[in-house]
Amino acid sequence: MRLFSLFLLTATLSFATHFVPSKVCSKCHPAIYKEYMGSMHRNSSVANDPVHKAVWDKHPLKAKQKYNCAVCHTPTDTKLIEAFKKGQPALPQSNRIQRNEPIGCATCHRIRSVRTHVKQNENIYNDRPKYYYAAKGGKTVKETVKFHEESGFFGLFKKAKGSPFHTIDYSNRLFADGYTCLGCHDHKRNKQGLAICSMDRKEAEPSTQTNCITCHMPQVSGSLSTITETKTHAYHGFAGLHVRPDLLAKHIVLSIDTSKGKLHVTVKNQADHRLFSHPLRLAQLRVEIERQDKTVTLPPVNLFTVLGKNGRPAMPWVADTILKQNGIGAKESRTFAFDFMPQKKDRITVTLGYYIVNPKAARKLGIKEQAIKEFKVLKSKIFPY
Ligand code: HEC
Ligand code: HEC
Ligand code: HEC
Ligand code: HEC
Ligand code: HEC
Question: How many CB atoms lie within 10 A of CB 287?
Fold first, then answer.
């Protein structure tokens, strides 16, 4: 009897640890696959992300061979996660999963629920390799579709319904309200209990109108599959600071006011999380004035986070306090005063942009990639005066 249940247990375990390779999905979902291949979920591993690699290379857990980043950065590599859990050496190798799909298609679509914890949240996956959750037109409905053919008019024609490869379950609300993202994206505390990363979300009722999915995976043109034709599909490049920031610009509103004898610039953040929440970022609000043929550049406002210990900046694994954090909060509108008063016919350009890695930190980490080091624009607006 005991032997039998042990067998059952290992059987479910090995099922649970198999994710269908994303390449398989590409046959019927080519547009989504192509976008995904350029996304940060495809590039979240040490093999593909030079920023992640640079930080990991300095991390004390590397010498101990304990890659505890795996549950969020490479959850598809279940062999690595199992080794880690068993206390065996667990370092990421440059294998197919690490290079092609550290956070794969099936991995995300099998997240059944998200368990909340103080240190970091946890994804609970279903144990069926070909059973995927989705929303139906952005909504949750009590419906599970297996592939079948529906006969019409006395069996004269047949119509295929669903996917010939997998079951689709439309009843998991996480895929409509965006909570499926929060197993990895909510917060992370270090050993000292300091939240080194936190979205500082404005807790609201789960919404299907505006959420992580509607902002970061907006509908873009192209069919969701080659079999069921649709005009649009959810963008799988996941708009962010590395990929297509232009898709996010509309959620930031810039305005100016000079009624108090000085230039005031207001930034309105419509996201339900703090802007530029990752502690490596440096965001800047820049103002430039064109007057006749001269350009005046005002000193920029810096927005950033500094983690520290004993009053000095420290690495995230050492830090026990937040020395400074002035990023714009969830749903916050913040006004910045500049020591300047425009004149008639001036053209004022206001830009909210960012460095993916604060240039000071980039030097310390030895990051050389130009795309990481350069200033990027999130939103820019010209105000004729
Ligand atoms: C709880 C989940 C979680 C764990 C565990 C985790 N990360 Fe992350 N990490 C994230 C998420 C989510 C992002 C993306 C955040 C963003 O862009 O704001 C991220 C982003 C990063 C970035 C920025 C990458 C870039 O290209 O901008 C670095 C560096 C990083 N993580 C390093 C690590 C290291 C090193 C570990 C392990 C020691 C680790 N993380 C463990 C969730 C996690
Ligand atoms: C980071 C998690 C994540 C990854 C990785 C991911 N998806 Fe999705 N996918 C979602 C979410 C969330 C939605 C939107 C809700 C929905 O329609 O199910 C979605 C939607 C879809 C849809 C329906 C599109 C629509 O417009 O209705 C298909 C098909 C799909 N994904 C296939 C894939 C394939 C194929 C891959 C890999 C190439 C993939 N997904 C990778 C989370 C993910
Ligand atoms: C043989 C073709 C085929 C393969 C392979 C395939 N799919 Fe699909 N999939 C479909 C079809 C067809 C639909 C649309 C079904 C419908 O709308 O009734 C679909 C729908 C989906 C949906 C739900 C979309 C929605 O909103 O209705 C998701 C999620 C999804 N597939 C994920 C995947 C993932 C992940 C993989 C790879 C592990 C994969 N598919 C492989 C044919 C396929
Ligand atoms: C299994 C963990 C996991 C899940 C689930 C997940 N993410 Fe991520 N996501 C990450 C990690 C890790 C990174 C950082 C990768 C890096 O920079 O190395 C990331 C990066 C991102 C980025 C930054 C992209 C850029 O260009 O800077 C966005 C945006 C994002 N995720 C949105 C989402 C959304 C929306 C969902 C839910 C549909 C989601 N993620 C689900 C782990 C996850
Ligand atoms: C109203 C639109 C909106 C909603 C809703 C929203 N975001 Fe964002 N998100 C943005 C904008 C705009 C940015 C770009 C500025 C920034 O980096 O914070 C962004 C940036 C991000 C980044 C990159 C941050 C960094 O420092 O690298 C991640 C990761 C992210 N969002 C994940 C999420 C997740 C997860 C949710 C759901 C809890 C979510 N977003 C909800 C608009 C939104």
Answer: 22
| CA 185 / ligand 1 centre spacing (Å) | 9
CA distance 120 to 294: 51
Measured between alpha carbons, how far is 202 from 135 in angstroms, rounded to an integer?
23
d(CA 80, CA 77): 6
Task: Please state the atom number of ligand 2 nearest to the C-alpha of residue 225.
Answer: 29
Mean pLDDT lowest among 14-23, 45-54, 102-111, 163-172: 14-23
Torsion of CA 51, 49, 74, 308, to 10 degrees: 10
Counting from 1 in the atom list of ligand 4, the atom nearest the Cα of 213 is: 35
Identity at 271, one-letter amino acid code: A
The model's pLDDT over 280-291, given as tens digits with 9 standing for 90+, comes to: 999 999 999 999
Cα→Cα distances 347→161, 168, 181, 364, Å: 57, 53, 41, 38
Q: Which amino acid is at 193?
A: G
Q: What is the number of the ligand 2 atom nearest to the C-alpha of 230?
A: 26
Query: Does ligand 2 have an atom closer than 6 angstroms to the CB of 307?
Result: no
Q: Please tell me the predicted confidence (pLDDT) of residue 335.
A: 98
CA of 294 to the centre of ligand 1 (A): 43
Q: For atom 35 of ligand 1, which residue has the closest CA?
A: 56
pLDDT in tens, 254-271: 999 999 999 999 999 999
